[in-house]
Each structure stands twice: as C-alpha cells, then as structure tokens.
Design goal:
heterodimer; A: alpha+beta; nine-stranded antiparallel sheet; five-stranded antiparallel sheet; B: 414 residues; mainly alpha; 79% helix; disordered C terminus; binds protoporphyrin IX containing FE
C-alpha cells in the first residue's frame, strides 16, 4: 500500500477506499445498521398474501412499504447491498491485517532489548545461587514445563532466553472471518445455481418436475442475455414455473402415525413418512427410500424433504386389508378393494364388500362400540372400514376394522381380516431443493465453530529471560507479554517465575 | 410427577438464597453470606436431580425425550445453567456480591413459570422437533443465554459502580416527558390501527438512544444511570406484566392450553385494555417500578462497595462470560439451528422472526467483541452493549413468540 514519491490520484483514492473498508468502526456501524434493518423485517411480517396486509395496513401504507420493499426486505437490492458492503469490509479488513499477523506468528525468537524489557507489562527480578549455566538449565526447565518454545543467545556475558507459546492462536480470528466469507459464498452459490421448490404428490402418482419458489438466478441471467435457455418450464395449467428433474419420483405410500393415549389415537401426529421411488426416464427403477421429517431423500443433487401432507378433496381411495387364517403364523394375504366395491378372496372362499370408510373412529375396548369423531381437514387419523363378508352372494356377517384398535373386531369365522391401509386419497407434500452451495456453507460452519475457540481461548504468550553472572550467583530478569487474557498470563508468569526461584 | 415437587423445592431454595444474598449485602455478616451460598448449592443440587427425574419420567410415559422442548422446560433449564455458572463464578472470583443480582434472575424465571401457570405437562413432540440437532441447538443456546445473563448482571453492577450521581432532575424529567409523549402517541396510533408502525418507531428510537449511549456513554454518567434504570425496569417489568396478563387471561378463559390464544391478547388486560383506569394503573405500576429502581440504585451501590472486585476485574468477567457465551451461541444457536432447519426443510436460513432475532442478538455481541478494538471504547460502553445484548436475548427467547405474533392480530406464525 505504501508507495514512495509521486502518488497518482488513483493510488490516493484507492488507498482511501482501502482504509475506509479496513476499519473496524465501519464494521461496527454496519453491524448496527444490519441489526436495525433486520428488526424492521421482523416487525412487519414478510411475504404475506395481499389480503393479509390489507387487514393490517391502509392502502397508502402498503404502497409505501411496497415501494421500498419492506414486505420482502431481506431480498431487496439495498439489503443485499448492505450485506455486500459488510462482506467487502470483512474481506479487506482481513487482508489488511493478515500479513502482519502472519509475520508475528513466523517471527524468529529474538532477545529483548533493554528498553523493550522496561516496556513489558509483566516483569520480575531476582538473584539465585549457582552459575549462569545452572540457572540456564533451571529457566529452560521452567519454560518447557509451561510448553514454551525457546531460543538461546549469548552476548557480552549475558544469556538471553526468548520463548513463546501459542503463536498460531493468532490465526483464530482469521479462521472466524474466513468462515463468514465461506458461508456468504455458499449462500451465493446456492442462490445462483440451486433452486427451491415443492411437489404435492398423490399416493401412487409420479412426477418428473417440481414447482419452483426460487428459480436459479444464473439460469435467469443467462436466459435474459439469450446465452442459454433456462431449464425452467411454465406449466400453463398451474401457472407456476416448474423445474424438470431428469427423472421421475413416485410416491408409493404415505402414512401418518399419531400419538396414542391409552391405546387411542389423539390426532396429534407423531411421525409422517412417504415411501418414494425414483425411476429414470426409461422408467427403470433406480432406488427407493422411506423419507420422514428430518430424514430426506437425495438423488442427483436434488433433495426431497417430507414437509406436509393433505387429503385430496373428493378422492376415493382403495382399502387394503390383510386376511389371515387364525392360528397361522404367516403374514397373511393382502387384498385390495375399491370403496363400495367387492373383492373375492379365494383362500377363504369369501367375498368382501367395503361399505364405507370414516376418517376417525375409536373403539371402546369394553363395549366394542365405536365412537366417531370429526377430524381436522378430513385427516385420516384412525380410519375405520365398515365391511360385509359374503359367501357367494349371501351375506355372512358385518364388521368394522380400523388402523389402531384398542379392542377386538368381531371375527366369527376361522380367519381374521385386518386393516392395512387406505390408499390413494392423500398426497404427500414435499419440499424439493437443490443447493450446490451447501457444502461450502457447512465448511464455513465448521470453521465458525473452531475459529472463535482458538481466538478466545488461545493466546500468544512470550517470555524473555536474561541471566547475568554476579560472582557465582546469577541475576535473573524475566518479563513477558500476552496478546490476550492478561490476567491468566500474569498467573502463569508468576508460576514459572516461582519455579525458577526455587 | 415427583419432579415437580423437587422443582418447587428448588424454587424455594433460590428464593431463600436470594433473600440471604440481599441480607448479606445489607448486614455484611459472613455467616449470612455462607448460608446464602449453601442454599444456592442445595437448590442447584435439587434442581439437577429434578431435571434427571423429569427426563426419566418422560421415558416412563413412553415419550422419551430430553426435557428441553417447551417453554416450561427451557425456562427451568435456563435457570439451572444460570445458577450453575453463578456458582462457578462465586467460587472462582471468591465474591458473593453478584448473588443478590443473579439469584433474582433465576428466581424470577421460576416464579414466572408458576405465576403464569405455564403447563408443566410432558407433552409429545411434533415430528419436526424430533432431531438431535435440535437438542444440541437448544442445549447450547440456553447455556449461552445463561452466560449472557451473568454478563448482564455484571454489566449492571459495573455501570452502577461507574455512576457517581443520578444527575439533575432534568434528566429524569426529560426521560419521563419523552416516555409520556411516546406512550400517548402509541395509544393514538394503536387506536388508528397503526400498531406495527408504532412499535417500529419505538424500536428505532430505542436503537438510536442505545447507539448514542454506546458512543457517548462514557461522557455522561447520569445518562448511564438512566440507562441501567431503564434496562432493569424493562427486564423486570416485561416479566411482571406478562405474568399478570397471563393470570388474568387464564382466569377469564379457564383454559390451560392457552398459549396461542394468550399471544393474541397479550397486554390486553394491562396496557391495551379497553378500560382507561386499567391502562393508567398499569403505567403507574411501571412508573413505580422505575421509581423504585431509580431511587434505590445508588443505595445498592453504597452497599456493594466493599464486596466488589475492582472495576477492571468486572470488565474482564463481562468479557469472559461473553467469550464463553458467544462461541456457544454461534455454534449452538446459529450453526446447529441452521443445520437442523436444513435437514428438516432444506433451508438453512429463512429469515423467520426467531432466526432473525437470534442473528440480531449475535450481531450485538459481535459488536461487543469488535468494539474492544475501536479506540476509546472501554468498560462503560462495553457494559452498555452487553446489557443491550441481554435485552435482545430476552426478546429473542420470549418476545418473538409473545409480542411479535401478538402484534399481528391474525396471529399464528410459522
Ligand atoms: C459477522 C462477522 C464477524 C465475525 C463473526 C467476527 C468475529 C470475530 C471474532 C470472534 C474476533 C475475536 C474477538 C476477540 O478476540 O475479542 C474478531 C476480531 C476482530 N475482527 Fe471480526 N468478525 C466479524 C466481522 C468483522 C469485520 C467486518 C471486520 C472489519 C473491520 C472485523 C475486524 C476484526 C478485527 C480487527 C479483530 C481483532 C483482531 C485481533 O485480535 O487482532 N471483523 N472478529
């Protein structure tokens, strides 16, 4: 940065800019501004539907807020600009200071001058018995026991021992700063080359596209300049941009488990999961996985998260039952029947007719009576299947089977029918994202966890000792400094000095 | 549930310890101080057992989860960490002077649970919360909150020691005048349906004042005194009035699962009641609190004088608490929260109010760390920033759920 002699206007200006961005004051100011602006974004709800805003604000306020982007504050150009300024600040500040920090780390150990000694924050003197050589050994032992590395030099009858510890802890701050830059970089990579989307997939159906919330910015730019065509397609039926996956994903099954209270489902989901299969474009199965909340499926860099579910309005599903001989150890036979339909089961020579399915019923184990409840959004909390068993076309008996049954369904013949699934009337809500920047972000996270620990709990400590012969005795003068945690250092220094004195 | 009984015992022990710590400051008797410490240790031990028992109870109930996932459990854990850290500080710094300041934080948090009647049922978790990342996230966040809490107490003491006088009555009059104007304006705007704008304006004003305090703080001691009074009034007033609101809400609605409904009606029984006398009484209450803190601050200072370590040590302790809390908050509060969100929804950062407020808190403490390198920013300013940081912690933890979603009359975040 330092140029001698003639300085052009460019140098002067660029040096000014550099100084401006290297200042910690700017960092503090930017952090205050970022905090203040972020607060505004939490007070005004973000990204709500227009009618929700109308309930809160007058039209003129809405227009005002809209024009400065307060309804999507964190994605406005000026908020991004603030973040970029902060990034520039962080980068330049780090670049500005790193060379001298590196020098301080790598600097060879040198004896301390007389004046330097006087300026040390921590110093002690004493005279001990024995020759300089003996004293030297004692000092070195004391320093080594404190894990100090030392260098020895002799001049004019004086022995200088310079020692230090934890020089590399000076890197902690830089690791921390670089980690923040890595996280920003990862976030930018994600926004440019990744996408966020969703897919509501009914049981049994497959899709080769997902619907987008955020398009990859890179694709948009390239498309805008006419350099390459964006992969995004607009599905006119839905009016939402869609991203082709390059393969099919199918929902084979979806299930919700509910918490139970004394054997009865409470309507509070404990877990929900989807059985997903992936097929390539030739419809060959590639893989399948059962995904749950917190346990997604990833294929070709695209990840499918279980995020919601719902009932398809007016859809009627299929009832899956298991028929099993009493006293038999095998798993039984699965039969599938349409609602209001019949199915013939050869192994028992009976026909089963499905009379109806209700979404939420609970059997009283004592009386065998079933209590029916209304469930939120028609959710299948505990489906009850009402069925009739026929021999030929003659009805034999009626019974009800259900998913979680605290009692016993009546099964008068030598086989049992049990509920397995009600299939095809629900969809699974998948959050679908591609984020090629996430590894960069995570490596930033790791450094962000390590850096501060080094920065706060490490310290670069130096101790200098000079020994002078005083007629068979040795004068010891010791002094030291530490770049942080002075109190801790003083305690350590006193301890080491005590060892020398003994 | 036997654990509840033990939690109550711990609450009582903390209450007694708090009284004794205060008595110790007043009476200056070594024995009183010792028994205060013994009670604090005993309370901590009982609470530790209670935490473990509650954990075991959840397994007996077939739910099986670490006791950290609702308001009740997190408040209990927060007090546990706070007392633990306090005990360590008492032991390392060999002073009981902080006890009278830290114990009330612990006791008030536990009392808030009881007064507000926050449900202590062991409830099952919704699927998204079943994640180990979430567990580490909550665990580390609360430990860091506790260190910030201790730093807050230390900062307040520092600032108190820093203050020689309250300043002329003019400062107080000006502050009260400005507050009155703001409050009246608040009601006018509120009735005009401009709640959000009002809160925003208030927030911006507070920010401006805080910034001014930080930059100029060292120059005007009376302002610093006003600042401490304001901070302590805000912290204790928020808890007290939220408690009152919750109580009245519960009496009126007779429901236990009222968390959600309560949010929408937050402060309706006090500050935004339909009845003007109620509003007046509420504000009178705040003023009284303010007056008590204002007038007794210097007396406490005199009492404290002989117990306290030097100001440099207080400053250093403040820094150390933050040097422990900040990395924990970074790793636990931000990083693990982000990892959890990414494994549950595929976004590590979504700018939702809770996340954003954690970030704001993190910014405040980052400002603290960097301000040390800005020339001329010393103990006083650092203590001011640390106090702001803890107000931000309280808001992140309670305010976001209770105030922000209550601001939006149709409620229901997420
Ligand atoms: C949010 C982003 C940032 C984080 C998380 C961060 C983190 C840290 C941490 C943990 C320390 C050590 C503090 C201490 O030891 O007390 C530090 C020191 C420092 N930071 Fe930052 N920092 C950030 C942004 C910045 C920016 C933008 C600047 C630019 C001016 C900056 C300049 C410094 C300086 C000069 C130091 C002192 C270095 C030293 O010890 O020699 N930081 N930072």
């Amino acid at each position: 940065m330092e140029t001698k002699g003639q300085q052009g206007i460019v140098e002067v200006v660029s040096e000014k800019i550099w100084k401006f961005f290297a200042s910690v004051k700017l960092a503090v100011v930017l952090l205050i501004i970022l905090a203040a602006v972020s607060i505004v974004g939490t007070v005004i709800q973000q990204n709500q539907a227009p009618e929700d805003y109308l309930r809160e604000y007058s039209q003129s306020t809405i227009d005002l807020f809209e024009s400065i982007g307060l309804f999507d504050l964190y994605h406005t150009w000026w908020f991004v600009l603030l973040l970029l300024l902060f990034t520039a600040n962080l980068t330049i500040c780090t670049l500005d200071r790193f060379p001298s920090a590196w020098k301080a780390i790598r600097a060879p150990l040198r004896p301390m001058s007389e004046e330097g000694f006087k300026a040390l924050p921590c110093k002690k003197e004493l005279t001990i018995k024995g020759s300089t050589e003996e004293a030297e050994a004692v000092v070195i032992r004391a320093l080594s026991s404190g894990r100090y590395k030392y260098a020895l030099s002799k001049e004019q009858g004086m022995t200088h021992i310079a020692s230090q510890r934890g020089a590399y802890s000076r890197l902690g701050v830089y690791i921390t700063h670089v980690s923040i830059l890595l996280i920003f970089t990862g976030a930018i990579i994600g926004a440019f080359f990744g996408f966020k989307g969703f897919l509501n997939l009914p049981e049994g159906e497959a899709s080769s596209v997902v619907y987008l919330r955020n398009e990859p910015i890179w694709d948009k730019i390239m498309d805008g300049f006419g350099i390459s065509k964006s992969q995004v397609i607009l599905d006119p039926r839905i009016g939402v941009p869609a991203m082709p996956l390059g393969y099919y994903v199918r929902c084979d099954n979806f299930e919700v488990d509910y918490y139970t209270n004394q054997g009865r489902p409470t309507g509070m989901p404990s877990e929900y999961w989807s059985q997903l299969s992936v097929f390539d474009m030739e419809r060959q199965k590639v893989l399948d996985k059962r995904i749950r909340v917190n346990d997604p499926l990833t294929h070709h860099g695209i990840t499918f998260y279980q995020s919601s579910y719902g009932t398809i309005p007016n859809a009627s599903g299929k009832v899956v039952l298991t028929v099993k001989m009493k006293n038999s150890a095998d798993a039984g036979e699965k039969v599938v029947a349409e609602l209001d339909g019949t199915v013939y089961v050869p192994s028992i020579d009976r026909t089963i007719r499905i009379l109806g399915v209700s979404p939420y019923g609970v059997r009283d184990p004592m009386s065998g009576q079933i209590q029916y409840y209304r469930s939120q959004n028609g959710e299948f909390v505990n489906p009850v299947v009402e069925l009739e068993v026929l021999r030929g076309s003659k009805p034999v008996y009626r019974t009800q089977v259900m998913k979680v049954d605290p009692g016993e369904p009546s099964m008068p013949e030598n086989y049992t029918i049990s509920y397995s699934d009600y299939w095809g009337a629900r969809y699974t809500g998948l959050q679908v994202t591609k984020d090629p920047g996430v590894l960069v972000v995570y490596s930033g996270f790791i450094l962000l966890c390590i850096g501060p620990i080094i920065a706060f709990f490490g310290s670069h400590r130096k101790i200098w000792v000079r020994l002078q012969d005083r007629k068979g005795q040795t004068a010891v003068m010791a002094g030291g400094s530490s770049n942080r945690n002075r109190i801790g250092f003083e305690r350590e220094f006193a301890g080491i000095f005590e060892k020398i004195a003994k | 549930m036997e654990s509840s009984l033990l939690f109550n015992l711990a609450t009582l022990a903390y209450l007694a310890a708090m009284v004794l710590y205060v008595a110790f400051l007043v009476l200056k008797k070594e024995n009183v101080g010792k028994s205060a410490s013994v009670l604090a240790y005993a309370g901590l031990a009982v609470q530790t057992v209670a935490l473990i028992m509650r954990w075991a109870e959840s397994y007996q109930m077939g739910i099986g989860r670490v006791p950290l996932s609702n308001l009740y459990e997190s408040l209990v854990f927060f007090t546990w960490c706070t007392v633990l850290i306090y005990v360590v500080v008492e032991w390392k710094y060999k002073t009981r002077a902080f006890g009278a300041f830290v114990m009330p934080v612990a006791f008030m948090a536990l009392a808030f649970i009881n007064v507000a009647g926050i449900s202590n049922d062991i409830t099952p978790l919704v699927p998204a919360l079943k994640s180990n990342w979430l567990l580490y996230h909550v665990l580390l966040s609360f430990i860091s909150y506790a260190t910030f809490g201790v730093a807050f107490a230390v900062s307040i003491i520092y600032l108190l020691q820093d203050t020689e006088e309250r300043g002329s009555a003019g400062y107080l009059a000006a502050a009260l005048g400005i507050s009155t104007v703001l409050i009246v304006l608040g009601y006018v705007l509120n009735s005009a349906g401009m709640k959000v704008q009002f809160w925003m304006g208030l927030g911006i004003l507070a920010m401006v004042w805080f910034t001014y305090m930080v930059v100029k703080g060292a120059l005007s001691r009376p302002q610093v005194y006003l600042f401490i009074t304001f901070c302590t009034t805000l912290a204790s007033g928020m808890l007290i009035f939220m408690g009152i609101d919750f109580l009245i809400f519960k009496m009126l609605h007779q429901t236990s699962a009222a968390d959600d409904g309560f949010r929408k009606h937050m402060f309706e029984s006090t500050f935004i009641s339909n009845s003007i006398p109620v509003i007046a009484i509420s504000w009178a209450g705040v003023l009284a609190l303010f007056a008590v803190i204002w007038s007794s601050g210097l007396k406490i200072k005199v009492m404290l004088k002989q117990f306290l370590p030097a100001q440099e040590i207080l400053d250093d302790l403040n820094y150390r608490m933050i040097a422990i809390g900040w990395p924990l908050f970074t790793a636990g509060g931000l990083v693990m929260g982000a990892i959890w969100a990414n494994s549950a929804w595929g976004t590590y950062w979504g700018w939702d109010p809770k996340e954003t407020w954690s970030l704001i808190t993190w910014f405040v403490y980052s400002i603290y760390l960097h301000a040390r390198y800005v020339r001329g920013w010393k103990g006083t300013q650092m203590a001011v920033i640390s106090s702001i940081g803890f107000l931000s912690v309280i808001f992140t933890y309670l305010g976001v759920n209770l105030v922000l979603s209550g601001l939006h009359s149709y409620g229901g975040m997420n």
